[in-house]
Amino acid sequence: MRDKRKPYDLMPEELEELCELAENIARKYIFAKVSKSDVTNFVTVVNIETKGDQLNVDVQIELDLLPFTKFNADILANEAADEAIKAIEKRLRELTGENPSSNKFS
With contact defined as beta carbons under 8 Å apart, do 64 and 40 qualify? Predict the structure, then answer.
């Protein structure tokens, strides 16, 4: 059995992987809902910082859609950010050996 790691002990490469994962999940979520041609602006900012014994994750998505698109851009962006955070939490559990059913990172 391997020792459990703490989220704040992640290597820089692992933190970069988490950022890329969040961006990919957000992108997939949005483009599963709307056509790329309906998107006029799409920016994902993932900020992961370690502070003492804590790992803080923030995902912000800026999304602008063409007028008359059936989705609200703000709601869609928030949903995509939530999905990205869930994906980060899942990957963190894998990286740290945390029990997948645990809600420790929520």
Answer: yes
Terminal CA-to-CA distance of the chain, rounded, Å? 25
pTM for the predicted model, two decimal places: 0.83
Q: What is the DSSP string of the chain?
A: -PPPPPGGG--HHHHHHHHHHHHHHHHHHHHHHS-GGGEEEEEEEEEEEEETTEEEEEEEEEEEE-TT-SS-HHHHHHHHHHHHHHHHHHHHHHHHT--TT--TT-
Pick one of 3.30.300.100, 3.40.50.1240, 1.10.10.10, 3.30.300.30 as the CATH number of 7-96. Answer: 3.30.300.100
pLDDT in tens, 20-61: 999 999 999 999 999 999 999 999 999 988 877 788 899 999
Quote the tokens at residue 51: 């502070």
